[in-house]
Amino acid sequence: MASERKATADPARSLALLWRTREPTSRSAGPALSVDRIVRVAIDIADAEGLDALTMRRVGEALGVGTMSVYTYVPGKAELVAVMIDTAYGEMPRPTVEGDWRTRLERIARDNLALYQRHPWMLRAETTRPVLGPHLMAKYDYELGAIVDIGLTDVEVDAVLTLVLGHVKSAARAASEVVDLERETGMTDGQWWQSHAPWLETFLKPGAYPTASRVGTAAGQQHGAAYGPEYAFEFGLQRVLDGISVVVAERAANR
Amino acid sequence: MASERKATADPARSLALLWRTREPTSRSAGPALSVDRIVRVAIDIADAEGLDALTMRRVGEALGVGTMSVYTYVPGKAELVAVMIDTAYGEMPRPTVEGDWRTRLERIARDNLALYQRHPWMLRAETTRPVLGPHLMAKYDYELGAIVDIGLTDVEVDAVLTLVLGHVKSAARAASEVVDLERETGMTDGQWWQSHAPWLETFLKPGAYPTASRVGTAAGQQHGAAYGPEYAFEFGLQRVLDGISVVVAERAANR
DNA sequence: CGGCGCGGTCGTACGGCGTACGGCCTCGTT
DNA sequence: AACGAGGCCGTACGCCGTACGACCGCGCCG
What is the pTM of this model? Predict the structure, then answer.
């Protein structure tokens, strides 16, 4: 019987949570808790101490409430994280940007990078299931709006956005890993490499991997290690935008 | 005293593990276990059932050995995963590819995609710390070799590779999420959307987010949902390569 | 040849996690 | 005044990674 499912997959429950469908309680003194309050403290915890520190016990504690009380409002931790993600999307700016599509798209990339810098836990939050909340919807609509009219098909427009956001997420993740490493080891990225390099040389046959050594060293010392991720973000972003320009120009020529 | 560290950060131990520095035991009958055997079954488990199924108890069981015996060879789970990653890199092909740099780079992208398809757990394995094993080293050297001579600086060459590999990882992750979703829910991606769409429409004000609706629908039905990730990979890869071409051409012109 | 040390093995136990279950208390309604 | 439902939450279960220390058999040294 492969048709039986472990559940947790009830679309109605999960979506209703995301969209906050809940008739207000008729009680006079409203309940002490609410999805919003829970999500707010959960985001605060994750922002300050990372996803690992976000436990249900911790959330209850921060709310001055028993652990299990949280479950009155949220079906489980996965759903809580989903709401956290949608909420974070909701706080992004959606300005009307003057200028051409490249300016607009670049701005979108930077705004997304800023989001990940503010909420690094989003980079580690694994959600096998798409979130589909109201704020993600609004974000998607806004971002598409910046590039719908550049002469590509709808499918291509979607792919362009996916490409840019994917690059931002990659770069943000790389940057976040450096920060995590520094927090965990108490050394800067440069110090970490300095402490590992001697050992590495012990194992490496001299003269092996000359290209890797040269390029790695160059990349390492050019940007004083602190700016590596930023450079990768900028360089990659310009390359991606250049690449998009090529198709856009092609289409414009064939019109 | 902020200088005290929780350890787990001993470079010598971790690197020695990666590089398999270990004098062979003088005992007659060699030990039942070895790092290699452990890594092999661990990769098998992760390949077949995902990272969540990879527990130390499970590894011991698969080896017919007590859980704690594994710790004789491996300091902890994080280190085990690191060795698994380096081992996986080791099985990648490193052919000499005929053709121009674009052909070579495209090949590299596809080989990396294939790696992630064979070992989807690599996409979820969070290693805040770089792996620095011999096979990663060899891979890095090989991949750099494909593009060192295209007329860019060493720093740019590194950034190019980072960009391409980042795109591959993003696309692979998206594809893997679809697969996970199908395995978890027992529905195809299309069925999942069909089961959620009615609920979504309930919440959405009619006429809200017209762009998102149109583009999303177009993107969804064009590629019958099954080919979405593949399309995103291909489209993005060509855009990225186009973008790299632009800089390469610029440099060639200014020579 | 006898004893010892040591490397490999692993049973037990601890502290942490997510969360199922069922009881209790408080309130609005009848 | 009695009731029922909704919010709250203590306890407990089954997982996880892994610290600790005991056991055991082999190779070496006296």
Answer: 0.93
